[in-house]
């Protein structure tokens, strides 16, 4: 992964946040995009900003660090580095696929190593995503034209022609038409690998949009957004902006 990583520090103690900010300022290739005092604040930050690495305390009020890390899976998420005073959670941390586990007081050398591990993990994730996209772009023998969704205890066959966008929803996916959303028993990654790549585009770690459903592109203060035909605003992830612009340009009739 090229470029500077963006980190979010999540800790309920202001002095701990300040120490970590100071230590990270000494490490090249990472910038602190923000801080949060608990898991709820962290979720709000993740919804509005592109965060590459979470520096996550474990014991916090409202929503603890381990619960937050569990809630983020299996959607592609920031790399998680736990930073805590409690050694007994180390095994559980790696059960939620943490990139590293640091004990307070934080050793600067170990912190730099943890950031390097997070970068390696994110680079591999990007390569895996690119490979899935390349495979999806191969002509399919029988391209799908519908998905199966849940409706009132029954399953409904929903034509892709009716779908505007898909969003990750916990362990599931929500398919959105112009009128409403439908729950699907699938992950966003698995769904992406089955969709026609010429018609659907991943614009964020939690969002896939149908290209022909985009009616307008809005750029404001560095943030790129897509407006669907039904008027829904979808934010484009920072690392996806160039790819999204190129894909939409190629799909526009000339």
Topology:
Elements lengths: L4 E6 L3 H11 L5 E7 L2 H10 L4 E4 L8 H8 L6 E6 L5 H6 L4 E4 L4 H29 L9 E6 L2 E6 L3 E7 L2 E6 L3 E4 L3 H7 L5 E5 L2 E4 L3 E7 L2 E6 L4 E3 L5 H11 L3
Structure description:
The protein has 254 residues and is an alpha/beta fold. The chain has 2 domains: 5-135, Response regulator (Rossmann fold, 3-Layer(aba) Sandwich); 146-251, Beta Barrel (OB fold (Dihydrolipoamide Acetyltransferase, E2P)), CATH 2.40.50. It is built from 7 helices and 15 strands. It has helices at 14-24, 39-48, 65-72, 90-95, 108-136, 188-194, 241-251; strands at 5-10, 30-36, 53-56, 79-84, 100-103, 146-151, 154-159, 163-169, 172-177, 181-184, 200-204, 207-210, 214-220, 223-228, 233-235. A 5-stranded parallel β-sheet has the order 2-1-3-4-5. A 5-stranded antiparallel β-sheet has the order 10-9-8-12-11. A hairpin with a 4-residue loop joins strand 14 and strand 15 (233-235). The protein starts with a strand and ends with a helix.
CATH class annotation of the largest domain: Alpha Beta
Number of helices: 7
Number of strands: 15
Strand order of the largest sheet: 2-1-3-4-5
Key features of this structure:
7 helices; 32% helix; 2 domains; 5-stranded parallel beta sheet; single chain; Rossmann fold; globular; alpha/beta; 254 residues
Briefly characterize the structure.
By secondary structure, this protein is of the alpha/beta class. Helices cover about 30% and strands about 30% of the residues. The strands form four sheets. It has a five-stranded parallel sheet.
């Amino acid at each position: 992964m090229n470029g500077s990583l963006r980190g979010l520090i999540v800790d309920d103690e202001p002095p701990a946040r300040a120490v970590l900010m100071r230590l990270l300022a000494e490490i090249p290739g990472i910038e602190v995009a923000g801080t949060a005092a608990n898991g709820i604040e962290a979720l709000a930050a993740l919804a509005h900003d592109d965060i590459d690495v979470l520096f996550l305390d474990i014991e916090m009020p409202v929503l603890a660090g381990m619960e937050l890390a569990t809630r983020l899976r299996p959607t592609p998420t920031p790399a998680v580095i736990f930073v805590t005073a409690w050694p007994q959670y180390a095994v559980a941390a790696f059960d939620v696929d943490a990139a590293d586990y640091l004990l307070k007081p934080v050793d600067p050398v170990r912190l730099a190593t943890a950031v390097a591990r997070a970068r390696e993990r994110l680079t591999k994730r990007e390569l895996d995503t690119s490979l899935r996209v390349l495979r999806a772009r191969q002509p399919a023998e029988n391209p799908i034209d519908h998905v199966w969704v849940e409706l009132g205890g029954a399953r409904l066959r929903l034509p892709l022609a009716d779908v505007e966008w898909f969003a990750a929803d916990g362990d599931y996916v929500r398919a959105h038409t112009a009128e409403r959303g439908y729950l699907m028993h699938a992950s966003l990654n698995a769904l992406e690998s089955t969709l026609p790549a010429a018609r659907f585009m991943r614009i964020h770690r939690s969002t896939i949009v149908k290209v022909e459903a985009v009616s307008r592109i809005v750029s404001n203060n560095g943030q790129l957004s897509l407006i669907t035909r039904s008027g829904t605003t979808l934010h484009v992830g920072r690392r996806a902006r160039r790819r999204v612009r190129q894909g939409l340009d190629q799909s526009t009739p000339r």
